[in-house]
Amino acid sequence: MAKSKYEYVKEFETDDKLLRNVFILVRVDGKGFHKFSAAHQFNKPNDVRALNLMNHAARSVMHELDDIVLAFGESDEYSFLFRRSTDLYQRRESKIVSTVVSLFTSAYVYYWNDYFTDSRRPLYPPVFDGRAVLYPSEVEVKDYFAWRQADTHINNLFNTSFWALVEKGGMTPKAAEVKLSGTDSKDKNEMLFTEFNTNYSKLPAIFRKGSVLLREHILKSLDKDHIIPTLPETLPGSTSADASVAESTMDTEEDTATPSISETPSIDNKRPLESDGATDEGDPTSEGAGESSGEFQAPPGFKRMKKGVVIDHIDIIGPKFWSGRGAYILAPEKRKKTGP
């Protein structure tokens, strides 16, 4: 850059580099989304189209920023965890937060029509804000995600109960609020079951548990271009129905039917996942990601292990996740060679 007498103004810039050797967590949150969801007639209490659009936007962020090792989303918010050693933008807070928010918002608008097929674009621009929080150890990281998933459950149970009273019970919103005031989770579950024949625990896991984005191996079939995430057959706190929802996010076929929980357009219906964000096992972008236990071996009939962004709806509260599928997230990172 050519020097000039005006360059002194750079001295007014603040140094906002974040502390090293701690985890950076960026949370993106919708601004004014009660109004936005009403204007766009989101289904109540949950609109799977809106949730999957959020998931698509989050996955787009992870594809662009390799140092994000985990993401969790619920409602109109998403949290992104960076690996402890990240040096993205020299750890400048303003650059990191603005980039994440910009990527997320642009993807949300860009992929809008893939989910809301009855409107080519939003009626007005959605707005998201963002913040960065530093966590010094694994304890705080685990507790943060436990907090967000617990919040998912609390909010969804209340909203499910509230809208059941309004839409099925014929109550006014004010009367529904009064009835739910002072109730605990047991009371709400009992009310849903006895008054509306709804077993809350059987509702789709995406509503009850939120969405978890992981970097996992993807397998390519030897006989056809078909890819699957390396999901275990059974997961702690999940059901076979949950697994089918997770696997559907890997599908690349277009779906023009009216969306339902199992028929919502894939979060990647424009191109195969393996060519969009998945990297060869030896790719530098996966350096330091770690593995939960040793080298992963491809089962018979599959070849060329890759890593890609996989979405699932599972429990992340408690040790099972962090010692299993999430073990790589907090595992000691490989040191890069600096010499010959």
What does the secondary structure layout of this molecule look like, with pairings?
Layout: E1 23-30, H1 33-39, H2 48-64, E2 68-74, E3 77-82, H3 93-110, H4 112-115, E4 128-135, H5 138-168, H6 173-180, H7 185-196, H8 205-209, E5 211-221, E6 227-229, H9 240-248, E7 279-280, E8 302-312, H10 319-323, H11 327-330
Antiparallel strand pairs: 1-3, 1-4, 2-3, 2-5, 5-6, 5-8, 7-8
Helix pairs in contact: 2-3, 5-6, 5-7
How much strand? 15-25%
SS-based class: alpha+beta
CATH architecture: 2-Layer Sandwich
| Number of extended strands | 8
Proportion in helices: 25-40%
The largest pleated sheet is described as: 8 strands, antiparallel
| Succession of helices and strands | EHHEEHHEHHHHEEHEEHH
Determine the N-to-C terminus distance: 34 Å
Fourth-tier CATH superfamily name:
tRNA(His) guanylyltransferase (Thg1)
Overall 3D shape: globular
Family: Belongs to the tRNA(His) guanylyltransferase family.
Biased composition (Polar residues): 236-249, 257-267
Domain tRNAHis guanylyltransferase catalytic: 6-136
Region (Disordered): 229-303
Note down, in words, how this protein is organized:
By secondary structure, the protein is of the alpha+beta class. It has one domain (18-153, 207-285, 307-331): tRNA(His) guanylyltransferase (Thg1) (Alpha-Beta Plaits, 2-Layer Sandwich), CATH 3.30.70.3000. It is 35% helix and 16% strand. The protein has eleven helices and eight strands. It has helices at residues 33-39, 48-64, 93-110, 112-115, 138-168, 173-180, 185-196, 205-209, 240-248, 319-323, 327-330; strands at residues 23-30, 68-74, 77-82, 128-135, 211-221, 227-229, 279-280, 302-312. Strands 1, 2, 3, 4, 5, 6, 7 and 8 form an eight-stranded antiparallel sheet that branches. The longest helix is centred in the middle third of the chain and has 31 residues, at 138-168. It is globular and about 70 Å long.
